[in-house]
Amino acid sequence: MQAVEANGARIPVIGLGTWELRGRVCARVVEQALRLGYRHIDTAEMYDNEREVGEGLRASGIRRQDVFITTKIWPSHLAPRELERATKESLARLRLTEVDLLLIHWPSQKIPLSETIPALCRMKTLGFTRHIGVSNFTTALLDEAVRLSTEPLVTNQIEWHPFLDQSRVRAACAKSGIAVTAYSPIAKGRAAGDKELKLIGLHHRKTAAQVCLRYLIQEGAIVIPRTSKVERLSENLDVLDFALDEAEMDEVRKLANPDGRMVTMGSAPQWD
Hints:
By secondary structure, the chain is of the alpha/beta class. The chain has ten helices and ten strands.
């Protein structure tokens, strides 16, 4: 599996997002994804499926050291003691001694980064995670996190798809050698119906969604599309055997705008 290298981490370029996957469906999809060739699984304590992700990993028969597991800590648990407790509880649910990547899921408006970032670094030094990073961080928050961190931050996981201009935060990540992980990379299904993506797909005998994922990968992203359908797992994985030329990339770039965001929450930061 192709990977993105960032600040000492080697992250498989395609992962399985598990948001809204629950129970036996989640365990089955994780198991099937790993058997098909996925080597990167993304979960979070808020998803309420870490236990099933662990079950799917064990059922797959794939060696633990061959799979990159990411989980995320919810903003209400970002005070130092709470962060450590939440991390240990995530590991217990996953039945793992460590994860490969531990992220702050969303920045907190109540707990300052000056408390959270040192606590996150401590999770790495204690051996609970191999790497650390952030999610949904703006350029200002990212700069502050980098300044406060005594361990390298390896990714900022953000909403990114062809319909959302994320150039500012991407530039901030690049400045610090931080990879960008794109969640909702198919724009919650919107990509599948886009005329321009369909036209490009016809040329390559690929779907619009595959063009979307390929575009992001060529732009340097790690992509973590979510699906509950086993047949979609293969489609999302099958994007490494073709390439978009520069004219096609430019056509996809034209779809972006600053107001294309599809995911937010009441306590979200002031977006770039």
